[in-house]
Recover the amino acids of this structure.
């Protein structure tokens, strides 16, 4: 009894299908979607305003997380609500991963205040 080999193109097609079937599903997170630019101050009361027109519209402020202090770039005139974040964490018995990025400054990117990290998380990453 001799083994019969598949033709090379068919074998390559089967291998390609196996590779595709094993690849993880990569759903694009909503955070990657462009955020529509809003005018500073046009957010709902009680929400943090991230809108900007120029870098100087942004400032590093404590937005809070389940561990407590958590800095982020937001509109310089926006209030932040770290106490609400902590209260929600306590109510929902949530815990966080403690620690925070070292922010060197803020940049206005596509109408939204973004962190400029002092040390990139990944080599070659800008922010």
């Amino acid at each position: 009894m001799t083994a019969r080999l598949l033709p090379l193109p068919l074998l390559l097609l089967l291998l390609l299908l196996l590779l595709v079937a094993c690849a993880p599903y990569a759903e694009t997170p909503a955070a990657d979607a462009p955020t529509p630019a809003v005018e500073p101050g046009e957010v709902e009361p009680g929400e943090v305003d991230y809108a900007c027109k120029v870098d100087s519209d942004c400032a590093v402020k404590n937005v809070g997380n389940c561990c407590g202090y958590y800095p982020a770039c937001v509109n310089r005139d926006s209030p932040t609500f770290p106490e609400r974040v902590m209260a929600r964490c306590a109510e929902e018995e949530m815990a966080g991963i403690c620690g925070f990025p070292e922010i060197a400054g803020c940049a206005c990117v596509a109408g939204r205040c973004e962190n400029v990290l002092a040390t990139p998380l990944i080599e070659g990453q800008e922010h």
Notes: The two ends are 63 Å apart (CA to CA). The CA atoms of residues 50 and 113 lie 5 Å apart.
